[in-house]
């Protein structure tokens, strides 16, 4: 299936899910993350959800990271790129024009220092290819990271068999966590 068709399909599927169900499934995803071999690292990049688009609520995952004293990095969209800020007690968040909560400013962290990235997505396939919102923010960001950065998608849904229009610059996931299963693509 084409990315544009998948975006439409999964947007419609998300709209049918209650906020309560998303919260329950997000908690299951956070707990499932504890099964991954990723907890010896220091720098974890995580997105904050666009609640209006019924994204995975990463607050549970954020709690796990903070409870384990990890350095949590949040993205901010600027001129077609992501800038990365360390989450501290002083971090102020503001919702941007796309309703994405993001840090106003703070301590910038270079992409090559980030070791694990939790990635938002609309859909993904059995090879780890993902469909985002189509703006390329995460593909450009991941190209700036070290080649061994661990890329983890979070999804309420199972994978598609194949995304037909995968591009050369698309960077596949290493894992995708759903409420019931962890998919490994390495």
Automatic annotation (TrEMBL):
<dbReference type="GO" id="GO:0005524">
    <property type="term" value="F:ATP binding"/>
</dbReference>
<dbReference type="InterPro" id="IPR037171">
    <property type="entry name" value="NagB/RpiA_transferase-like"/>
</dbReference>
<comment type="similarity">
    <text>Belongs to the 5-formyltetrahydrofolate cyclo-ligase family.</text>
</comment>
<keyword id="KW-0479">Metal-binding</keyword>
<dbReference type="GO" id="GO:0035999">
    <property type="term" value="P:tetrahydrofolate interconversion"/>
</dbReference>
<feature type="binding site">
    <location>
        <begin position="3"/>
        <end position="7"/>
    </location>
    <ligand>
        <name>ATP</name>
    </ligand>
</feature>
<protein>
    <recommendedName>
        <fullName>5-formyltetrahydrofolate cyclo-ligase</fullName>
        <ecNumber>6.3.3.2</ecNumber>
    </recommendedName>
</protein>
<dbReference type="GO" id="GO:0009396">
    <property type="term" value="P:folic acid-containing compound biosynthetic process"/>
</dbReference>
<feature type="binding site">
    <location>
        <position position="48"/>
    </location>
    <ligand>
        <name>substrate</name>
    </ligand>
</feature>
<feature type="binding site">
    <location>
        <position position="55"/>
    </location>
    <ligand>
        <name>substrate</name>
    </ligand>
</feature>
<keyword id="KW-0436">Ligase</keyword>
<dbReference type="GO" id="GO:0030272">
    <property type="term" value="F:5-formyltetrahydrofolate cyclo-ligase activity"/>
</dbReference>
<dbReference type="Pfam" id="PF01812">
    <property type="entry name" value="5-FTHF_cyc-lig"/>
</dbReference>
<dbReference type="InterPro" id="IPR024185">
    <property type="entry name" value="FTHF_cligase-like_sf"/>
</dbReference>
<feature type="binding site">
    <location>
        <begin position="130"/>
        <end position="138"/>
    </location>
    <ligand>
        <name>ATP</name>
    </ligand>
</feature>
<dbReference type="InterPro" id="IPR002698">
    <property type="entry name" value="FTHF_cligase"/>
</dbReference>
<dbReference type="GO" id="GO:0046872">
    <property type="term" value="F:metal ion binding"/>
</dbReference>
<keyword id="KW-0067">ATP-binding</keyword>
<keyword id="KW-0460">Magnesium</keyword>
<keyword id="KW-0547">Nucleotide-binding</keyword>
